[in-house]
Design a protein that fits this description.
- The protein has a single domain (3-115), classed as Beta Barrel (OB fold (Dihydrolipoamide Acetyltransferase, E2P)).
- The chain is 19% helix and 41% strand.
- It contains two helices and seven strands, in the order H-H-E-E-E-E-E-E-E.
- The protein has helices at residues 3-10, 14-28, and strands spanning 43-57, 60-68, 73-79, 92-97, 99-102, 105-109, 112-115.
- It is elongated and about 60 Å long.
């Protein structure tokens, strides 16, 4: 690595560097980037969980899992569940479902998912 590469790497914020690593990880999986998700079309995408919320919907609990791939964010909504085993902030997962846009957000209701091994640094 030359001096320019070193200066470029050192000049990045930790957040920017983490976002770039996450983008590279998701790109290597060969799935659709979140910022390019088509609506009302079955799709697979990957991301890292940034937040979890339990929200009542139609009188039943629902878990909203926000994922980011370093480019965009999407919310996987698990209806009728108060818990999804293994789904925790910082965990990476592949999600498969049909995205919709609702109030500026990309939502995928009751997707199938695959938890990925935890990142090792």
């Amino acid at each position: 690595m030359g001096v320019r590469g070193f200066v470029k790497r050192v000049g990045k914020s930790t957040e920017e560097s983490d976002r770039e690593k996450l983008r590279d990880f998701c790109d290597a999986l060969g799935l659709t980037p979140i910022d390019e998700l088509p609506v009302r079309t079955p799709v697979r995408f990957a991301g890292e969980i940034t937040s979890l919320r339990i929200v009542p919907r139609a009188g039943a609990p629902a878990i909203e899992v926000t994922l980011t791939d370093g480019r965009g964010a999407a919310v996987a909504v698990f209806l009728g569940r108060a818990r999804v085993r293994g789904v925790t902030p910082g965990r990476r997962m592949v999600v498969e479902g049909v995205p919709i846009r609702e109030g500026g957000e990309v939502l995928v209701y009751n997707p199938t998912y695959e938890l990925l091994p935890t990142a090792a640094g």
